[in-house]
Specification:
Layout (H helix, E strand, L loop, with lengths): L8 E5 L3 H12 L3 E6 L2 H7 L5 E4 L5 H6 L7 E4 L4 H19 L6 E5 L3 H8 L3 H5 L3 E3 L2 H11 L7 E4 L4 E7 L10 E2 H7 L6 E6 L13 E2 L4 E7 L4 H7 L12 E5 L3 H12 L3 E6 L2 H8 L9 E5 L5 H6 L7 E4 L4 H13 L4 E6 L3 H8 L4 E4 H13 L7 E3 L7 E3 L5
Parallel strand pairs: 1-2, 1-4, 2-3, 4-5, 5-6, 13-14, 13-16, 14-15, 16-17, 17-18
Antiparallel strand pairs: 7-8, 8-12, 9-11, 10-12, 19-20
Helix pairs in contact: 1-15, 7-10
Amino acid sequence: MAAGGALMRIIIGGGGRVGTGLARALRSEEKEVVLVDNNARVVKNAQGMDILVIYGDVTKRNKFIEAGIESAEVYVAATDSDELNLLSCALAKHVHAEKTNSNKTLTTICRIRNPHFVEEHKSGKLGQWAGVDHVVHPIDDAIERLMSGLRSSSLSEVIPFEADAYIVELDVKSEAGSVVHRTLRESGSKVEGGLPLIVGLKRDGSPGKVPSADDLLLANDRIAVATAGEASFNRILRIFGHEAVDFPERPKVIIFGASLIGTRLAKAWQRAGASVTVVEKDLQLANNIAGSDIGDLPGIEIIHGDHLDKDLLSEIEISSMDIAISALDNDHGSIAAALLAIDMGVERTGLILYDADLVSVVRRMGITFAVDRKRVAIDAMLSRIHSELPGPYAVLSSVPDVVGICLPIS
């Protein structure tokens, strides 16, 4: 709540998947939301969301005035353009200061893709020349989720928090005899070592909720479990009827594509002790990566070649790989590469996708774990908006009526 009991007003620039997803989440918290976009179709689609929708350009001063910038507490720049986002943050700050004539400040949150702008932010300079208070660059968060999720083939979502804490989401199987058709209280006495902490429960036809001890668990329920340490994942899987497979101590990982995501994935797995092979189709890009600091890291091999060339994949013994991750710029190309890796004997496959609608689809294709970049961006934006919370914040994908937060107890 804002001072005096008024609703917090938040202006969002950009009504794509991230902007509208953020608006929907904030409306569920009863925030006052204004969405500005210059795409007529986007504006029309957003008009059923119980928010103020304005058609216009976020680089135009009069649009911020129309959006009520003087009473706003937060501006989120969520368009698909880094430059547009930066420019609109600077303008929003200026118009807000001009209209309020007070010490009241506007918090700006900027969605960024270019790592150079991220470095500017880390150095403290971006806020000085662009008026940006917080930067959202979801790639590293998406990579962390993907790496955690690939440690188990049966978890539908893994959300890392601080201090090695996680919320994992999974289905309850009919084979889970200790918990199915029992209340959580009854299950606690049946499960050796006690029942893990279930923080969310979703059943078809019912809203998601935080369950009580008297709630019953049924087969096919979707649950969210809070836990500490990735070593606890297998125990959780076994309790709820899934087969647990041990994860190799030093996995062999193959990554298709040396894009920004691919190179950051390679670094992250190398730091985690994995042996990494990167396959890149573009010769110049492959040479650039091989000649960079990544190419000098021990345990990383860069190969120039087509990720769909079966002869090449056989030659580098893809069947011996523990994990295959496709990091191409095109979702459908990434999916095709991951499916070929499965066909050639790789048991665990992962994707970071642009299209949220494909995340559930690829799981049904047999791909182990997929991360929706846009959802990670929304979670990051919500964390910045909820800056009074001294820790991460995330909307649970399986139980969307429940959020996860992490904070110290004083």
